[in-house]
């Protein structure tokens, strides 16, 4: 029997769930415990099919718009990505019982945009058109109050009436390097533009990208475990390529491994997007262990201790129980 080829596997740390994702999943599970199924969730609670299917099995019903939620006492939960102001307003008009699982770091961006607007500034949002977080942030202000830009070219093409009265905010899940380029272009063109007191890109996105940057040029391939519709997961694969890894792939699960690509490597780094559970990482490792004699090591670039408490409404009910 032939011996398995050796494979060095570097696990990036931090990886996987961030505090906002943990909180959002906990919100759904706690609501199911307190109120029983069904619990309605507007949009995927986080962008990961495995997580969504797991919650469906427990009694969560995922909907895209509020009109899919029936009238009654069943809770309707808003996803971690945040929603436009029109959504809770519609829910209130229909007397729906809602629970907001928006990540506190996204809420921070919403508040920043609102403060700039109250001060009379035009708000520029750096982000990707169509992403739920961007739709939610733009929906905090009246139509036209926020201008969306994604690239340096977008900044150059912008038409602004009052260049001395601008501010910018960013989507929380962007590539740190890409965003720096766009911010630099904004500051070059509009030197007086108001910036966030602290960066808007979330700590988890930054930390996961930093770990990938450090390892990318030292391995034959990088696997990012995560869903294709997860912005922060997509950015991790892009960061790996930019940092010098020729083969970087975003994979939803172990079943998606292309062995024509990964069948002859000698070193591999594995990370996971902020909405990908660790069980999916373990299954990828197991898949490689079947074909290779693997030696696993961990590269740790940061320790994460961030914790976000559940929404007050769920804490109060739990305390009364």
Quick summary:
This protein has about 325 residues and is of the alpha/beta class.
List the topology elements.
Blueprint: E1 6-13, H1 19-35, E2 39-42, H2 49-58, E3 60-63, E4 76-78, H3 86-93, E5 98-100, H4 104-118, E6 122-126, H5 132-138, E7 146-149, H6 152-157, E8 166-170, H7 176-189, H8 203-216, E9 221-225, H9 231-242, E10 247-251, H10 259-262, E11 267-272, H11 278-291, E12 293-300, H12 312-320
Parallel strand pairs: 1-11, 1-12, 2-3, 2-4, 4-5, 6-7, 6-8, 9-10, 9-11
Helix pairs in contact: 8-9
Please report which band the strand proportion falls in: under 5%, 5-15%, 15-25%, 25-35%, 35-45% or over 45%.
15-25%
**CATH class descriptor of the largest domain:** Alpha Beta
Across the major sheet, the strand order is 10-9-11-1-12
Tally of structural domains: 3
The total of helices stands at 12
Low-confidence stretches: none
Main β-sheet description: 5 strands, parallel
Mean pLDDT comes to: 95
Distance between the termini: 60 Å
- Category from helices, strands and their pairing: alpha/beta
Global geometry: flat
Cα radius of gyration in angstroms: 21 Å
Order of helices and strands, N to C?
EHEHEEHEHEHEHEHHEHEHEHEH
Residues in helix, %: 40-55%
* DSSP E strands, number: 12
Task: State the CATH architecture of the largest domain.
Answer: 3-Layer(aba) Sandwich
- At CATH level 3, the topology of the largest domain is Cobalt-precorrin-4 Transmethylase, domain 1
